[in-house]
Amino acid sequence: MVKGFYKRVLPSPSAVDFVSSNGKKLFLEAFQNGTMQGFNSLISYFQTQSELTYCGLASLSMVLNALAIDPGRKWKGPWRWFDESMLDSCVPLEKVKANGISFEKLVSIAHCAGAKAEPFRASHSTIDDFRKYVTKCSTSDECHVIVSYYRAALKQTGAGHYSPIGGYHVGKDMVLILDVARFKYPPHWVPLALLWEGMNYIVESTGQTRGFLLISRPHTKLDMLNFLDSNS
Amino acid sequence: MVKGFYKRVLPSPSAVDFVSSNGKKLFLEAFQNGTMQGFNSLISYFQTQSELTYCGLASLSMVLNALAIDPGRKWKGPWRWFDESMLDSCVPLEKVKANGISFEKLVSIAHCAGAKAEPFRASHSTIDDFRKYVTKCSTSDECHVIVSYYRAALKQTGAGHYSPIGGYHVGKDMVLILDVARFKYPPHWVPLALLWEGMNYIVESTGQTRGFLLISRPHTKLDMLNFLDSNS
């Protein structure tokens, strides 16, 4: 007898499936409104987490490819390219495979990979900050937001999870989560406030809240100096 | 010294980058026109070919997930899900890894995986047929087209390649290729007639032309009987 699961049903009405007619309607409205500007680049590198504990690495790998950051070494054949296996410079992959990855470690891996990564803990930020950065990255190609949240707050099965944000619908105040656990949930729209609730949960092992990461190319001279400093 | 390539430049003007402003314009027009109906489901499972010879398997895996075909066995943990490693039922993966995959073998793997797969060789079909099926699948969620083509005809580097079609722009008669060699080319729009030229090239080893596959769920009783017949 075959056991296991073929996906999970998205909790309704809090989540709207990207593939549903309502999901497509939200998408078209947001696209026309100019708040899906980062979508084309990010979706071009949408990937499935290759291990059940690799949600952080898969989210980061997508964003690095979307930002056209060159890993500076080969993936396969002659090709320089990011996937999770290329994110082994600062934290051993076996450790991530066993335990997943903390918020701080993901930030340091992003730095090691050549990106600018700004972490925001929910406890040291506000929902208005979050909305501001989601708006900023959904109206340009220059940054992407990765969220760290507690799935149960969204009535989803599972615990802590990372995924990137694919766009924003201003009128409905909803974000498109490009869930890297694609074997479980399709991309879906959720109210930004509900996602914020999921980010504001305390992680028991650390006593700290979850939050979000703002990832971009280190393009200014000051950024480059900070980057070199943090990696020297 | 780092060698190899960080992507290839798309040949211009025959290809339009999906991420460029013109690519986004074509996308929005096609979306509004109703000829991107299969896009949301297919892009939700867009993946990179995990080996340099796996373009056929990656294209098929995307389409199987987009059609919500259950592999009936587990991928990782409790999850039933397709990636290239799950397409090992009829042709040994080691053989595909060494030599890539022929048109016929890809059809039989699609059948083995539980899909309906209709092959069309360019030599036994017409550009009008191709346009008809591209239109059919871009105006519904019920089928997807995988093309087998010769890259050089599109002025791209490389030889034979498979990728799925993500949508169609009627006015410009252009298709969106979701190139699974994402380390090489981003998704791009190309004139349907140019792609047809690439499909109409003869493969030296077989003396036959390339072509396209129409993939769908085997939903009718007759389809199921045909499917069972071809797998008994």
Automatic annotation (TrEMBL), chains A, B:
<dbReference type="InterPro" id="IPR007719">
    <property type="entry name" value="PCS_N"/>
</dbReference>
<protein>
    <recommendedName>
        <fullName>glutathione gamma-glutamylcysteinyltransferase</fullName>
        <ecNumber>2.3.2.15</ecNumber>
    </recommendedName>
</protein>
<dbReference type="GO" id="GO:0010273">
    <property type="term" value="P:detoxification of copper ion"/>
</dbReference>
<dbReference type="Pfam" id="PF05023">
    <property type="entry name" value="Phytochelatin"/>
</dbReference>
<feature type="domain" description="Peptidase C83">
    <location>
        <begin position="1"/>
        <end position="220"/>
    </location>
</feature>
<dbReference type="GO" id="GO:0046872">
    <property type="term" value="F:metal ion binding"/>
</dbReference>
<keyword id="KW-0012">Acyltransferase</keyword>
<dbReference type="GO" id="GO:0046938">
    <property type="term" value="P:phytochelatin biosynthetic process"/>
</dbReference>
<comment type="function">
    <text>Involved in the synthesis of phytochelatins (PC) and homophytochelatins (hPC), the heavy-metal-binding peptides of plants.</text>
</comment>
<keyword id="KW-0808">Transferase</keyword>
<keyword id="KW-0479">Metal-binding</keyword>
<dbReference type="GO" id="GO:0098849">
    <property type="term" value="P:cellular detoxification of cadmium ion"/>
</dbReference>
<dbReference type="InterPro" id="IPR038156">
    <property type="entry name" value="PCS_N_sf"/>
</dbReference>
<dbReference type="GO" id="GO:0016756">
    <property type="term" value="F:glutathione gamma-glutamylcysteinyltransferase activity"/>
</dbReference>
<dbReference type="InterPro" id="IPR038765">
    <property type="entry name" value="Papain-like_cys_pep_sf"/>
</dbReference>
<dbReference type="InterPro" id="IPR040409">
    <property type="entry name" value="PCS-like"/>
</dbReference>
<keyword id="KW-0104">Cadmium</keyword>
